[in-house]
Amino acid sequence: MGNGKYKTGLKGRGDADVSEDLRQAITDCLPSASTFRLEDVSKHFDISADEEDDDDCKTGKEAAQQMIRLLKEKDLTEIKKSLLPCQGKLWHQWCKMNKELNRPQGDDPEIEIS
């Protein structure tokens, strides 16, 4: 509509459609030149923000990149076998044995369960 007034219909529309219309209306209302940056706000209000040249951020970023390289280099099943040994075949074997050991035995399983 005009002069910053917007109308959107709600009847018979899903949440996704309505939220998309609201996002578009808000985007249209805001000037394109204004951007929100946490770094700018933190300079004015004594708020500490992580910066990319901070040692902790560098360490975390390097660890994430190393994990991504590992995922790209090896097959996912090989990674699971090496890093998560109790999640694969061994785990399934243990579950099967545990079920067999705890399964009621004998002629009348109801008596054994009670």
From TrEMBL:
It holds the Pfam family URGCP. It comes from the Eukaryota. Residues 3-67 form the Up-regulator of cell proliferation-like domain. This is Up-regulator of cell proliferation-like domain-containing protein. It comes from Cirrhinus mrigala (Mrigala).
